[in-house]
Queue: 4 jobs
Job 1
Amino acid sequence: MKRHILRTSLTIVLALTIRQVEALGQNESHNSRRPHGIEGVWNESVTFRQCDTGNATGTDHAMVMFIRGGTLVQAADHLASPGLGTWRPLEEGRYTSIFQLFRLNADGSLAGRSKATRDIELNENAGEFTGTSVLEVFDASDKLIFTVCATETATRLD
């Protein structure tokens, strides 16, 4: 009788465990298709602006990858190294990030570095974001030479 109760109990525990594992697997599969906030890869269009007037001074395109845990990598279409940095949430749908990159001369030598601080707001379905940035540009001796502002729009790369 004790063996029968033990066998029945183990069978029930095993069945419940299998059911729980299956449910977790389905949940993970469902969640992997849903965006995790800002995490993922984004195509960006950047408009540089004079900070005091807001007048546009140029444009750029970039790709940025926000990595789970709060790091990011950014690549732009100009002479520069990839940007490396961090991000963090502020409140629902809002984030801030900071990254740095090395600016290069046409011959590949070091021109200096840039440091960007950015505020980001996701749209309702987390498929697009808008942002504002302040970019500090330093020369090769690490002296601040100018500051530029930017507005950004981005779409999630699916």
Job 2
Amino acid sequence: MLALRKRYDVFGRGDLEFLHPENRRVLAYLRSDEERSVLIVANLSRFAQYVELDLSRFRGSAPVELFARRTSRRSATCPTC
């Protein structure tokens, strides 16, 4: 986690916006700067949790999983996202 934070300045210097999912066991927020936006989703439970987030403003963007450095495919349940 520390190496990932050092690699992307947005984690420490970007704008911070908390999202408010209905599931209170999930913490979700965005860090943004001029170059990128990063979505952080943390499961605060010891069990798997379901969460829905409104990310419609990022429609057309390709999400990249930062740990694996790979682009994710679009969701099968949201073909326009």
Job 3
Amino acid sequence: MVEENWRLDLKGLVIRRRSPRRTYVLRVRGAEEAQLAALEAVLGAVLPRISNRAGGDRPRVLALAPGDWMLIGADLPDQDRVAAASTALVDLADVTDGRIAFELSGPLAADLLAKGAPVDLHERAFPIGSCAQTRLAQIHVLIDRPADAQGDGFVLYADISYAAHLIAWFDAAAAEYR
């Protein structure tokens, strides 16, 4: 079992396992703009219409693909209430127990992630408010660059079953910074 409060604190790089926050996946098929607006009113959140964009705080909304979002950090209305807000096909699934999050901060955070992910994380290519699904250490992850990370931080989401694998990878990849 992976330590709940795991943390790696080095000069220029801090990585910490974040305690679980409510996490949902929202999938909407066949929705018109008015139906999306009705869903936003029920959810209390703006749904970015462009993939790989993120916004909000509670909940944080990450646009994964057209009609697919991940919502993090707030309790949301139940599936029936969300589905009733639109005539489109809507599915809201609570995936909190199946996800893990790591916060990476410091001027070396992007360099560390670049060792294992093929995404350009430089601020001009991946500005605040960006997110991307990619592979890191050979597993599927979602990387977010929230505004509260002050430009040099990221939040990485993955399936909880990969927690030990990611911690081992972070530890090995950060060896040169010790």
Job 4
Amino acid sequence: MIDDTHPDDYDFTKYFTGMHLRRLIEEQGFHRTKQLINRLTKRNASRVLRRYADFFPPDILMLTKEALFERYQQSVLEQMAA
């Protein structure tokens, strides 16, 4: 995975906010992250996400049927192990 997001290209606030959003998307998924942003910004998640789209994990935009099935399988395995 190649990451083209470089700190020198953004001001401090945008870079660190963007990187935190990336981490949330990677850990919780895009939908849950959008729900959180909507709750915290009075339903302005779409605008916020457009502003920070440069920071999204590269694979978030290229979700294939196979990748979705693989994530599903991993999730089921984790649930069964608990």
